[in-house]
Amino acid sequence: MKRKRWYYRLAAILLSCFSGTFLLMPLAGRFPQKNAKVVLACVGALFWITGIGGYTLLLLAYRAERRTDGKDERAKRTGIFPVNTAALILDIIFAVGVVILTLWSGKLFMQRYGAYVVLFVTTMAFHMRLLLGLWPDRGRKCSKGGMKNDRGGKKGTGR
């Protein structure tokens, strides 16, 4: 059970870094000619390592959740992705980001760095929504107060 939580947490960190690499891309092109190739290679390597690592850990966490909780957890869920206030906000941010990027693509008046910021926010919203939908235990409260831990007991009661 702890392994599953670590998979989700590490996936969240790596996918956040993956989104953050979009902010590094325009900065990498501003270095002198000698260092530009090295910096661009480092940003590219960081992009691919965090992307592949984050999605791999997310897949491993999802498979571990399927094996341990299995059918009981899925029967309680309604749909693939739960709908709550945080999920709705992330969906709206993602949709607005996709519309802005679509409208701005190919336009000359768009600032170069502005596109990377919008791309960062859009991918971050997508990744957080993906994590929110696939992390089954996140935020579930116990009936007697406190939060449930992986073994079904209460956590954070102080006793």
Describe it for me?
With 159 residues, the protein is an all-alpha fold. Helix content is 71%, strand content 3%. The chain contains five helices and two strands. A two-stranded antiparallel sheet has the order 1-2. A hairpin with a 5-residue loop joins strand 1 and strand 2. The mean pLDDT is 77.
Radius of gyration: 19 Å
- What letter string, H or E per element, gives the SSE order? HHHHHEE
**Secondary structure: number of strands:** 2
Average pLDDT taken over every residue: 77
Poorly predicted runs: none
The proportion of residues in beta strands is under 5%
Structural class: mainly alpha
Shape designation: flat
For the termini, the CA-CA separation is: 22 Å
Helix content: over 70%
Strand order of the largest sheet: 1-2
Q: What is the helix tally?
A: 5
Oligomeric nature of the chains? single chain
Q: Please summarize the sheet with the most strands.
A: 2 strands, antiparallel
Features:
single chain, 159 residues, mainly alpha, two-stranded antiparallel sheet, flat
Secondary-structure map:
Blueprint: H1 2-28, H2 33-68, H3 70-76, H4 85-104, H5 112-134, E1 147-148, E2 154-155
Antiparallel strand pairs: 1-2
Helix pairs in contact: 1-2, 1-5, 4-5
Nutshell version of this structure?
With 159 residues, the chain is an all-alpha fold.
